[in-house]
Amino acid sequence: MTGYGIAFAPLLPWTVIIVAGLLGLVILGFGWWRRARGTTWRLVALAILLAAVANPSLVEEQRRPQKDVALIVKDVSPSQSIGDRRAATDAAVKGLQDKLAALPNLEVRTIDAGASDPAQTGDRGTELFGAAEAALADVPPQRVAGIAMVTDGQVHDVPPADRSGLTAPLHVLLSGHPDEGDRRIVVTQAPSFGIVGKEVQLTLKVEDLGGSAAERATYPQTARVTVRKDGGETRTLNMPIGHDVSLPVMIDHGGQTVFEVEVEPGPHELTLDNNRAVVVINGVRDRLRVLLVSGEPHAGERTWRNLLKADPSVDLVHFTILRPPEKQDGTPIRELSLIAFPIRELFEVKLDEFDLVIFDRYRRRGVLPATYLENIARYVRKGGALLEAAGPSLGTATTLYRTPLGSVLPTEPSGEVYEQGFKPKVTELGSRHPVTADLPGAPKNPNGEPTWGRWFRQVEATVHHGQTVMTGLNGEPLLVLDRVGEGRVAQILSDDMWLWTRGFEGGGPQAELLRRLAYWLMKEPDLEENDLRGMVEGSRLTITRRTLEPDNHPVELTRPDGKTETVTMNPQSGGRSVAVVPITASGLYRISDGTRTAIAAAGALNPIEFADVRTTPDKLKPVTDATGGSINWAGTGTSLPDVRRVAPGRDAAGRGWIGFRANGDYIVTGLDETPLMPAWAALILALGTLILAWRREGR
Question: Do the domains at 181-285 and 528-602 have one common CATH topology?
């Protein structure tokens, strides 16, 4: 292919040539004004001289044509799996490839786009424009013939029409059908956290989208919605369609609470994926309200107070009964303190407001009537938490065991009190219990010695029910945990924990032990002794099972797409067994061992990919209009438009056809240059015209 052109290599700067030409024209203009003869020939002479100085050449180029590039973007996002869209997309892509391949001087590229995993890349939806830009990164804009996107129109990275950066026509082939209908449920508003024991409000909305006007007139006005909490209890309600509905839900525990919301299928459904929504709310405790009742002043009383007050999340109410046991002077009980002990307010009116009640070295002295102790026992059975740190009085007639409270205590004192040095030890069961497993200073092997200091007093007792997680002198029970009704009880059969606080013989993990003990009593999920849970960490799901008895049975994992698999658990310390599996998709992962069920949420729980799955031209139309492209339907049974090459600046679409620009780009492979104004020729022509001008002037 050969092309011709004219090139200039001026002998003087262009500025000089232009100024000289303008001066010459001014002089010649004065001559014309004076009607001087020969002016025309002088103008010709000036033009010849200026052309000679400009030094023009005829350039002959040897050109190699460059193929234009047509790009086909195939949408392979999850929404393309709905109905027959995948088949329609494949057929449209194949048809376009065949038609474009028949056009001359055109390179056809095809890419798949929109299949990103929200669990890894975030919830960005279907991104086709970014993929198209990357596919054409090595192609100059003047070689792009056009872009064809085969999609359902639900594209989430559509640029503004005036800033799309596209210089070639964009054609869209829609893989679905007009007037598609679908039902979805939308979580309009949901808090990210809630206070444990309080209700929070979810705002939900059911929408019936699309369909023809006649069909919409027949749609129902309400829909049945099911709400499931933590994969367990469910509630059903009828919701009006098209209106926001506020739904109160209770946060029962700390950590994540997962609410699954599902609406029944509508009159038209493209997919049931958007009939479900998931809300994860983190439960946080407002403040831990603790009632500490010390039976008498003693060295460990300040330890309890300091440990509880050191935690800013603890709201502590502390009373100490100051009357020593040997003082028998007949002073009325109501006069033994500077302020009246609010017995009725604490143990009847506001008892249920406390998260934990602690009796520290308490003995029966008539301060608390049996009626109020019965209230505490009832409080425990209804879900409350009780901790007794026993002193020497536990082995006497003044023990709490001989009150109505004894019905919820796990041990019965024998009356013996040991006052010898011993190191508290974690039992085999305790090594698997979350309260005492892996305590700092505990031995690494069962026969080892702990590194913490000794205690010097222990009350002997018989365990009737509950779990002994620590022992003391001669293997006697030291810390016993029990579940009573819906509540929990713990007994420490010694009042010497204060020695660890004082650092005696190196001290011990009293703060950690008390923290775990308090939160176990309040049913914190992280401290459940028999528990199954899943935690998402990046691209991995960590499954942890904690049991008091060794259990290496596999668990069943159900992935978001409904596929199930068996996962082998690997034993670890502290009664745990762990397995790590890769996350393959966003959504809810259900884990079950046959007894317990856990739910883990990964990535985008309500992906925008399925927020609206109806095929639509609306999102892409501004860009196709701005680039001179078109939108056509390519669903199953729809014929493809014809494909043509069009010249730049011409319409790129019409009735039944789409156009791809013929840019005519090329690469110059050879160059031949021939001067058009040699110096000798310019001199002869200039002198000749000047002579003619002189002769004309002389007549």
Answer: yes
CB 661 within 8 A of CB 628: no
H helix or E strand, kind and range, residue 62: strand 56-65
Tokens of 650: 């011409």
Q: Which of 88-97, 208-217, 437-446, 681-690 has the highest mean pLDDT?
A: 88-97
Query: Which of 497, 534, 499 minimizes the C-alpha distance to 517?
Result: 497
pLDDT at 325: 44
Higher pLDDT, 49 or 387: 387
How much is the average pLDDT of 12-34? 77
> Is residue 55 left, alpha or beta, with left meaning phi > 0 and alpha meaning psi from -120 to 50?
left
Residues 567, 557 contacting (CB under 8 angstroms):
yes
Q: What pLDDT digit, counting tens, does each position of 380-439 carry?
A: 999 999 999 888 877 777 788 888 888 999 999 988 889 999 999 999 899 989 999 989
The residue-averaged pLDDT of 61-88 equals: 87
Domain boundaries, the chain: 2-64+668-698, 67-178+615-664, 181-285, 288-521, 528-602
Joined tokens for residue 121: 């890349």
> In 80-200, where does DSSP find H-type helix?
85-101, 118-121, 129-135
CATH of region 288-521, choose from 3.30.360.10, 3.40.50.300, 4.10.410.60, 3.40.50.880: 3.40.50.880
Q: What are phi and psi of 609, to 5 degrees?
A: -55, -35
- In this structure, what token pair is assigned to residue 239? 């919701």
- Buried b / exposed e over 167-186, threshold 16 CB at 10 Å, is ebbbbbbbbbbeebbbbbbb
What class, spelled out in words, does domain 181-285 have in CATH?
A: mainly beta
Q: Which residues contact 186 (CB under 8 A, 6 or more apart)?
A: 204, 205, 206, 207, 277, 611
Q: What is the mean pLDDT of residues 50-63?
A: 72
Secondary structure of residue 381 in the 3-state scheme: helix
User: What is the distance between the alpha carbons of residues 631 and 19, in angstroms, rounded to a whole number?
Assistant: 55
* CA 540/CA 8 separation, integer angstroms: 68
- Alpha-carbon span 375 to 81, nearest angstrom: 61
Judge whether 202 and 186 are in contact, CB under 8 Å: no
The whole-angstrom separation of Cα 275 and Cα 185 is 5
Q: What is the pLDDT of residues 628-666, one digit of tens each?
A: 999 999 887 788 899 999 998 888 999 889 999 998 876
Q: Which of 61-65, 167-171, 511-515 bottoms out in mean pLDDT, i.e. has the lowest? A: 61-65
**CATH number 2.60.40.10 given to 528-602:** yes
pLDDT in tens, 339-394: 556 778 878 888 888 889 999 888 877 677 888 889 999 999 999 999 998 888 77
Q: CA angle, corner 489, sides to 535 and 470, nearest 5?
A: 80
Tokens of 177: 């059908």
pLDDT tier, 297 (very low <50, low <70, confident <90, very high otherwise):
confident
Measure CA 640 to chain center. 40
Q: Are 173 and 150 in contact (CB under 8 A)?
A: yes
Q: Which two tokens stand for residue 252?
A: 């029962």
Residue 375 is encoded by which pair of tokens? 């209230």
CB neighbours of 639 closer than 8 A, spacing ≥ 6? none
Band (326; pLDDT cuts 50, 70, 90)? very low
Q: Say which residues have a Cβ less than 8 Å from residue 219's Cβ, sequence separation at least 6.
A: 208, 211, 241, 266, 267
pTM given for the model: 0.69
CATH number among 2.50.20, 3.10.20, 3.40.50, 3.90.1150, domain 67-178+615-664: 3.40.50
Residue 11, amino acid = L
Alpha-carbon distance of 555 to 550, in angstroms, equals: 14
